[in-house]
Amino acid sequence: MNITNSNPIKKGLSVFALGGLFEIGKNMYVIQYDEDIVIIDCGSKFPDESLLGVDLIIPDISYLIEHKYAIRAMIITHGHEDHIGAIPYILKQLNMPVYGSRLTLGLIKGKLKEHHLNQTVLHEINAESILEFASLNLSFFRTNHSIPDCLGVVIDTPEGRVVHTGDFKFDLSPVNQQFPDIHKMASIGESGVLLLLSESTNAERPGFTPSESVVGEHIHEAFQRAENKIFLTTFASNVNRLQQVVNASHKTDRKIILLGRSMVNVVKVAMELGYLNVPEDMIIDAKEADNFPRERITVLCTGSQGEPLAALSRLASSTHPLIAIDEGDTVIFASSPIPGNEKSVASTLNHLYMLGADIIHGSGSATGMHVSGHANQEELKLMLTLMKPHYFIPIHGEYRMLHQHRILAQSVGVEWDNIFILRNGEVLDIVEKHAVQSRQVTAGNTLVDGFGIGDVGDIVLRDRKHLAEDGILVVIITLSRQENALLSGPEVITRGFVFVKESEELLNVVSKLAMVVFEKLQKSGNDWKWSQLKNNIRNSIGKFLYTETRRRPMILPIIIEV
Q1: Model pLDDT for residues 434-445, shown as the tens digit of each residue
Q2: What does the alpha-carbon distance between residue 97 and residue 93 come to, in Å, rounded to a whole number?
Q3: Cα-Cα-Cα-Cα dihedral of 284, 286, 290, 293, to 10°?
């Protein structure tokens, strides 16, 4: 297959992802017909250990910036970070109207306020909303997930109907009474679906995903058994799970303490909008904990993924300034580790066991403290059967998940050749009902580091890795350029390379080598350049240090002119 970079063709339908394919997180999908673009979701994902110092990964929106005149709307299916986390960073580069459900917009507003973005127009939508943009007409259907107000998206185009499921499961006894609108999904399918984009997170898991209500029963049982403080950690955005904790705390006469910035923010927004019902005076400040017996305290905290700076990690290491986990307290993990986080979660568990806490974790039948918010195989097949698409793109997953979803689709009647497993940036063009994938647009990762968006690239990461592995050695020389004379130095400073007190002899030799390099250039005449001195110092000292230590610290010569 020959893939070339080009723009989507005119008078045809083009569908592609800028994030969310061959990965978990960073979801962003683009539907374009002629010169009308609709974006679905704007997510982020967290970096792995190789991206030193990077805070967040968001989609590369070069294509959208180039075609900003065609963007009609950004539609957000629900309020999880892998679907809204990139919004403030993207809107700083490219402002556009954002559409989402009530709770979703409530969470987005908090992000925009934090980033001082007050120019964005937010539009509230629900399952009955209809949006019309030139050649694209949008409608919606209700799904359920682990957060309220989740929507699937229907895009009617001149080529035919495109459906994006968002994240979903078929929970027929949901905690929040937001039932999946199966009848509407069936009606959409009966009207004819040209292309379906459906999430693939649990495509490898057989059967049906258990109901969230099952977790509530297990949480209540654990609360009744606990004799001292209870510390429960879960994803802050799992509002349905938070309600279960509130209910169990109320039934066992416990006060709730919130720890962790995201937990406090989500609970505040959910309570203000009526999605979380908390009895008056139930939530107390951590400073008030000593005013109540241990058996009347529930601590709801962040840190379910073992994040080093999250509340639970600080509690596990006994460094939280306001409250401590004591022997006999109960710690509940109402979550499961995201792939890649198993090591950090295990470390947190080890520290908690050392504190003498009673630990309850896992999603098995023995504990039942977590169920997924994503559809298992039978639910994915149900969605495919309801929609009956002609073409299908599995989305939201790593390759093995997309591949398994393709097999599921074939098993319910979608032709194998009509199922497209795409990478981010690969475009599916549909003209006169005929689909072709033969080209791509720019796609990739943009790294967020502090306030910087995209200013950390391969060179910066390479330097950070170099510093982390071998440290740095700085050589400072003060010169009088007019007299071509050395005024002071060479002074050698090192960090992360060797322990200075035990390596004085080595560093003295480094200083002498730098002096030798300077004297050679000094004798060569007055036409040498400082860059030449720096390069010669770097090369001479680098060779010596590798011979002596088999290490390659970053060598930074600094020349000061007086």
Answers
A1: 999 999 999 988
A2: 13
A3: 60
